[in-house]
Amino acid sequence: MRDLPHDHFGRIPERISGLVDLAYNLWWSWNPEARILFKQLNQQAWKASVHNPLRMLRDIPAEFLERAAGDPVYLRRYDTVMRRFRKYMSAAGTWFSEEYAGRPPLTVAYFSAEYGLHHSLPIYAGGLGFLAGDHLKEASDLGLPMVAVGLLYSQGYLHQRINPDGWQEDTTQPLDHATAPITRVRDATGEDLVVRVPHIDPPIYVAVWKVQVGRIPLYLLDTDTPCNDPENRGISSRLYIGDREQRLRQEIVLGIGGRKVLHALGVEYAAVHLNEGHPAFALLERIRERVERGMEFEEALAEVQATSVFTTHTPVPAGHDVFPVDLIDRYFRTYYPALGIDRLRFLQLGVHPENPSSGFNMTALALRASAHHNGVSRANGAVACDMWKCLWPGPPEAKVPIDYVTNGVHVPTWLNPRMKELYDRHIGPTSPDWLADHDNPVVWELIDEIPDSELWQLHLWLKAKLLNRIRERERVKWATHRSGALNPAAEGAFLNPSVLTIGFARRFSTYKRAHLIFEDLDRLKRILNNPWYPVQILFAGKAHPADNEGKQVLREIYRYTRRPEFGGRIAFIEDYNEEVARYLVHGVDVWLNNPLPPMEASGTSGMKASLNGVLNLSILDGWWIEGYNGRNGWAFGNEAADGEKRNAADAAAIYDILEKEVVPLYYNRSIDDVPHGWVKMMKEAIKTNGPRFSSRRMVKEYVARYYPSLLKGAGMEAARAPATAKPLTPAWRPRREEKTGEGST
Ligand SMILES: *Cc1c(COP(=O)(O)O)cnc(C)c1O
C-alpha cells in the first residue's frame, strides 16, 4: 500500500529499517526519544533536513546509516523506541478504552480544511489548523476512535519573502510528495484509489493520501489526478483558494468527497465533528444517504443533527464562507432532488436570517444541520451566541444553543524536550506518570520544586538556541541567495541574548494590531534604548496574499527595524511557520498579544509559550480572560474606548506595564544573577496554564460533553437500520480499500 520510493529507502540497513515506519508516523514528532533516533544519525544532517526525517533518510550518506546499524548503543535505543511505538500503536489500555469500556467504540470523523501537524506538511494557515492538528494528536494519545479528512494542497502554503522595501512577496513552493509524511492510498488492485464526488456535475474526481497521526489516520483528498480536466485538477492546489467558484468546489470536495472517500475505504463512523464551516457539505451528504435509504428529509436531518458537532471560531464576518445563489444552483441542481427537497428548502438551509439576500452561508448551514455547537473560548462562545441568535428566534432571554470548549495545546508537541526533562526530574519522583496525567493541576504543583537557577539557566539556553537559529537562517539565506545582509537589524544579527526579549508572532490580519506597540514612537524608543534595562522585540507572521492592508502594516514594521533610533532592537523573522513558532514560544521572555477585542477566538500561541515558562503580556480577550490570574503574566485592555482612542489607550497600557512591571522584574537579579521574582512568575504560569490549556483537558471535555449524546443519536439510528450494525473496525486500519466509481453506498 505504501508508495515507497525504494531508491531512497532501499539503502537503509534491515536492522534499523523501522526508521521508515517511524518517519511515516507523526508520532515521532511528539516523542523526543524518537526524534533523537533521527538526530543521532547525524546532527548536521538533521538540521539540514529542517527536522524532516524523510528528507534526512533520503539525503544522508549511507555510511551514517551503516554506522548506526552497527552501534550497540544506538541499537539499544532504537529497540526501546520501536518497542514503545509498537505498543502505542496496539492501542491497548488507553484512557478512552478504560473510560468507555464495554461500549461500542463509536468512531468520530473529523473534518477540517487545514491541519497544523508539522512544518513538513504545509497544509495549514494558522490557529484553526493547529487546533485541528493538536486535536488529532490528543485523540490518538487518549485512544479515541477517530478518523480525519482534509485536503492535500499541492502547492503547499505560501512562503514569505520580504523585499528590501519591506513588502511581502508571496512565493509558492510545490509540495515535495516524496519528503512529506504522506502515502498514496491504493485500491485492491494496486491502482491509486480514485473516487468520484457523488451527484456533482460536471464530475470531480479525487485521489487520496494518508497521514498517520499516531493511531489516527488522516485522509487528504487531492484533485490533482489525470481523471480530472485541467480546471478541476487545480481545486485542491491551494489552501483557501481566492476564486469563489474554485472555493465552492474545494468545499464540495472536502465535505461531499470526504464522506464518499471514507465509504470507499470501508471506514465505519457514526458521528462527525466539523472544524469551522468549510466542510459543512459533509452534513448534507449524510442526509442524502439517509434519504436514499428511504427516509424523509426532515427525519434524516434530525438524525444527522443528533450525531454532528460543529466548532465555530471566527467572529470576523469575512471569515464565514458565503456563496452566491447562482453558483449553488449550478453545482447543486441535481443534488436538491437527491435530498428529496426543492430548491427553496435547500437554500433555506444556508440563509442568514438577517441578510437573506447575501447568499448561501456555510456557517448557517453547519449550525442548522448539527445539534451540538461550540465556540473555542468562553468569550468566543458568547460572541458566537450573539452573532447567531437570529437562527433561534425566541424571547430575548432564551439561551442560544452555542456552548464553548476552550482550546488547548498538545503538551508533548509544544513542551520543549529539555523543559520536559527538567519537569520530569522534579515532578517525576513524586508523580512518575505525570505526563499521562498532565491535565490534572495537582501534579503541576510540583513545578515549585524546581530550583530557580535551573529553570532560569534552561530558559536562557532556549533563548540562545532561538537566536542561533535566527542567525543560521540568515546565514543560509545569504549563502544561497546572496541576499540577506541588506538589513542586518531586521534579520536579527544584532539580537542580544542578555536583553529582555518580547515575541510577537501571528498572522498579519488587521484586527491583530501588530503595529500597536508603535503607537507612541518616542515612548517605545525610550523603552528599547534604555541603557541599563534594554528591551528587544522579535516580530514574525504572514499577511494573507490578498490582504494589502496587512502587508502595509508589515512593511511599516519592517521599516522601523532599520531605523537606527530603535537601536537595532527590532527584528522581523521571515516566513513564520510551525518550526519558527516552536523556537519562539520556547525562547523569548515575553509573549505579546494585543488584538482588538473580541476578535481573538482563543489564541493558542500564548498557551504554547506559557507551557514553557514564557510569560504572556496580553489583552484580555480569547483564552487569556480564562487564563490570567494576576500572578501568571500581565493583562490589560479593560478600555471601553473606540477606534483611535482604543489604540492609544491599549498602547499606553502596554508601555506602562513594560516600564513599571516587566522590565524591573526582569532585571532585578540576585547575587546568583537569577531574577527570582521573574522565575516565580514563570512557575506560576507553567503550573496554572499547563494543565488547563492542554488539548488533553480539551478533548476530554469534548468527549464528556458530546459523546453521550452522539452515542444516543447513533444508537437510535442503529436500532432502526440494522444494516449499519456491521462489525466495527479499528479506525486506523481501513477494512478494505476498493476502487469505487460513481454511485451510492
Ligand atoms: C499556534 C500557532 C498559531 C496559532 O496561534 P495564535 O495565537 O492563534 O496566533 C499560528 N501559527 C503557528 C505557526 C502556530 O504554531
List the helices and strands and how they pair.
Elements: H1 6-9, H2 18-23, H3 32-39, H4 43-48, H5 53-59, H6 62-69, H7 72-90, H8 95-99, E1 108-112, H9 127-142, E2 146-151, E3 158-162, E4 168-172, E5 183-184, E6 194-196, E7 205-213, E8 216-222, H10 230-233, H11 244-264, E9 271-275, H12 281-292, H13 297-306, E10 308-311, E11 322-323, H14 325-332, H15 335-338, H16 343-349, E12 360-361, H17 362-368, E13 372-375, H18 378-388, E14 403-404, H19 411-414, H20 417-427, H21 441-444, H22 452-481, E15 500-505, H23 521-528, E16 535-540, H24 548-561, E17 570-573, H25 578-587, E18 590-593, H26 605-611, E19 615-619, H27 624-627, E20 633-636, H28 643-667, H29 676-692, H30 695-720
Parallel strand pairs: 1-2, 1-9, 2-8, 9-10, 10-13, 13-14, 15-16, 15-18, 16-17, 18-19, 19-20
Antiparallel strand pairs: 3-4, 5-7, 6-7, 7-8, 11-12
The structure holds pyridoxal-5'-phosphate.
Residues 126-127, 130, 506, 576-578, 581, 603-606, 608 line the site of pyridoxal-5'-phosphate.
Report on the structure:
With 745 residues, the chain is an alpha/beta fold. The chain has 3 domains: 88 residues, no CATH class; 338 residues, Rossmann fold; 283 residues, Glycogen Phosphorylase B (Rossmann fold), CATH 3.40.50. 43% of the residues lie in helices and 12% in strands. Strands 1, 2, 5, 6, 7, 8, 9, 10, 13 and 14 form a 10-stranded mixed β-sheet that branches. Helix 12 packs across helix 13. It is globular. Bound molecules: pyridoxal-5'-phosphate. The site of pyridoxal-5'-phosphate has 13 residues, from helix 9, helix 25 and helix 26.
